[in-house]
């Protein structure tokens, strides 16, 4: 169950620190977190919210350094209902207003159909399936470069050329492996 958290006496006596807004799609709690001395807290819903929500208690005493929870029951609504929750202390001298929005219940889900196969592990494609036209072209190019390097090394018979051909072969193999993974 979600909770609307409201802090009391955080910065000074009777101070109320509440979020500007809160959205609920089912019952929730108003968590009154007291950071100072004991406090009497009064909660009130405006007229539009009173049709969609009901406080389980309108007045609550919150002991020093404790948290009290006040339940809010939500009626089934077809359309969103908005209004204001007023939180006051000090016999009404300090008050904060929270814009509250009650949404239709999402208990049945969000209307997104998910295929049952989505949860099944996917098999790795075979090499034949993984090879597309681009991969085949890359393999042909790599094979041609490798063949050219070997032919040049054989024809010239130079240690430097053989080393360069080996380097080309290594780069070609690494490039193909990287491209196919």
| CATH architecture type of the largest domain | Sandwich
Low-confidence stretches: none
Number of domains: 2
The H-level CATH homologous superfamily of the largest domain, spelled out, is Immunoglobulins
Number of DSSP strand runs: 10
Task: Summarize the amount of helix as a percent range.
Answer: 25-40%
Structural class by helix and strand composition:
alpha+beta
Q: What is the percentage of strand-forming residues?
A: 25-35%
Largest sheet: 5 strands, mixed
* N→C terminal distance: 46 Å
Number of helices: 4
Q: Return the CATH topology of the largest domain.
A: Immunoglobulin-like
The shape, in one word, is elongated
Q: What letter string, H or E per element, gives the SSE order? A: EEEEEHEEEEEHHH
Please characterize this protein's 3D structure.
The protein has 181 residues and is α+β, with helices and mostly antiparallel strands. It has two domains: 3-102, Sandwich (Immunoglobulin-like), CATH 2.60.40; 127-180. It has four helices and ten strands. The protein has helices spanning 47-50, 127-130, 133-156, 159-180; strands at 3-8, 16-17, 21-24, 28-34, 39-45, 53-55, 59-62, 67-74, 81-89, 94-102. The strands form two sheets. The chain has a five-stranded mixed beta sheet, with no helix packed on it. The protein has a five-stranded mixed beta sheet with strand order 3-10-9-5-7. β1 and β2 form a beta hairpin. α3 (133-156) packs antiparallel against α4. The longest helix is centred in the C-terminal third of the chain and has 24 residues, at 133-156. The radius of gyration is 35 Å and the shape is elongated.
